[in-house]
Design a protein that fits this description.
Length: about 240
């Protein structure tokens, strides 16, 4: 298996025979699989560009190919070192696939890669929906306190069902907004001569901030939806 073009941290020598490596996955001389290179992110290891818009079929194809290379079942009678490499690589490969195949987790992963320790992903309540969250908390608390035979119970239930439908639309809109931001980010990266140019870095950071904010909004809308649905089903839930 050939080395992906954008893999920057390919180890120079095979751990088993010390031959020069042309691939980060397997030695051409002794055919031993190689450990996941230090500092190599999921995109690079799968041979994918660090982009937010990725063809899911391509992720699937890369994952299946590498699964056949590293699957532990193929190394039960191998050297202990190779068995260990197989187990570690297979586990990380599964984690890489799970992370990159989902748009939200892929965005969070890129946020971490691009910003590192400088950025703390937003976990505070987005200001644009703060009032909505407080109002919903009060309505849910009132609904739980009402007796089943109280006419207000039915009216509040109807209101909550309408709010839940509206939140579902909001939730879908955040995904549409993320799609637009993903395309904007990828366009900036594709057009850049270098990702380290000051103007490129500024544009990239601005887009990442907006992605981060949208992800936070999406998270809280999902929590509101889940709490509303659970309350309507009569479950004991903790309010937001």
């Amino acid at each position: 298996m050939t080395s992906p073009k954008n893999l920057e941290a390919v180890p120079s020598l095979c751990w088993n025979c010390s031959a020069q490596l042309d691939s980060p996955y397997q030695c051409d001389r002794c055919v031993k699989i190689q450990p996941w290179p230090n500092g190599t992110d999921y995109f690079a290891f799968l041979g994918l560009p660090r982009r937010l818009c990725i063809d899911l079929s391509e992720i699937e194809e890369r994952f299946l190919k590498l699964s056949r290379v590293f699957h532990p079942d193929f190394f039960q009678d191998s050297l202990p070192e190779e068995r260990d490499i197989s187990l570690v690589n297979a586990a990380r490969l599964n984690q890489a696939y799970d992370t990159l195949k989902d748009a939200t987790s892929r965005a969070r992963y890129i946020l971490e890669l691009e910003s590192g320790a400088k950025r703390k992903l937003k976990k505070t309540v987005p200001p644009e929906i703060a009032a909505e969250i407080i109002e919903l908390q009060e309505i849910l608390a009132d609904y739980v306190s009402l007796q089943e035979n109280d006419p207000a119970k039915a009216r509040t239930k109807s209101d909550l069902e309408k709010r839940h439908a509206a939140m579902q639309r909001q939730y879908e809109e955040t995904l549409e907004h993320l799609d637009r931001l993903f395309a904007e980010y990828d366009r900036v990266m594709d057009e850049a001569t270098s990702p380290f140019e000051p103007e490129v870095r500024k544009k990239k950071e601005d887009i990442l901030d907006r992605i981060d904010q949208t992800l936070a909004t999406r998270l809280y809308i999902k929590r509101m939806m889940d709490n509303t649905a659970a309350t309507l089903e009569g479950k004991d839930v903790s309010l937001l």
